[in-house]
Amino acid sequence: MPEAPPDSSPTLRVETVDVTYGRALSALRSVSLTVPPATVVALLGANGAGKTTLLRAVSGTLRLHRGAITAGTIRYGDTVLDGGDPVAAVRAGVVQVPEGRRVFAGLSVDENLRSGGLGLSRRTRTAQIQESRDRVFTLFPRLAERTHQAAGLLSGGEQQMLAIGRALMAAPRLLLLDEPSLGLAPQMVQRIAEVIREINAQGTAVLLVEQNAGMALSLADHAHVLEVGETRLEGPAGELARTDAVRRLYLGESAEDQGAA
Ligand SMILES: Nc1ncnc2c1ncn2[C@@H]1O[C@H](COP(=O)(O)OP(=O)(O)OP(=O)(O)O)[C@@H](O)[C@H]1O
Ligand SMILES: [Mg+2]
After folding, report:
1. Which ligand neighbours the alpha carbon of 23 most closely?
2. CA 182, CA 214: separation in Å to the nearest integer?
3. For tag attachment on the chain, is the N or C end more exposed, with fewer CB atoms within 10 Å?
4. What does the pLDDT look like over 80-115, one tens digit per residue?
5. What pTM value is reported for the model?
6. Which residues, judged by CB distance below 6 Å to any ligand atom, belong to the binding site of ligand 1?
7. What's the CATH architecture for 34-62+78-260?
């Protein structure tokens, strides 16, 4: 029987998911979230809220961290994502950029980029790698000037660009970004925001984890706030940015600011 063609514009559906680490540590409880094609969804929350855990569950890297989905389902179009199969996630078009821009410091920029294409099937790999490299170098001209440089010698901002570029090599339809602005100077944060906007404008959906709520809400269509493993708030990004709780807790405004506004 011929294979059914893959769903060309899948939606990510996380439905009432529980995640546990080891035997007992409950990290997410009944979390639901939807990322429609070509949208940006922001995931906010304090340290330890479960943001990274949710990305791991979607990208299939949860099992590497001894975590498991213990209730609920995650689907990307017709593909069921069970938290334990990163290759299946990449083949479905879902790619994560991990927290802390972990590039291979000893490898060159070019080698790092090529490693991002390894999850692709053999059939599509060669052509895809060429096309994706062109896309990455157009987005990040600075990387194009440094293809032979060891990644460990790049600045923090350049390493974040490389980490994003490496993920783009797999031609994702859904990009999972874990705190891309962390530790970067304001100008570089601005640049990363522009890049995310551009990647999205090219048709890639983005699930964006950020502690920089202002940046995330300015990019996102929809946003969720996690609090110790549960959804505290969700809604259109513009509406959430106007709620008192978000302004006070995540946008750094005091009660007096709000009184004055
Ligand atoms: N590999 C692991 N084993 C056990 N517990 C873990 C593991 N990874 C995370 N946790 C726990 O799960 C909870 C959620 O952690 P997670 O890393 O998802 O939070 P986060 O929202 O990404 O936080 P941060 O903003 O600090 O990155 C925390 O209580 C954390 O200690
Ligand atoms: Mg995290």
Report:
1. 1
2. 13
3. N
4. 999 999 999 998 999 999 988 789 999 999 999 998
5. 0.92
6. 21-22, 25, 27, 45, 47-53, 65-66, 99
7. 3-Layer(aba) Sandwich (3.40)
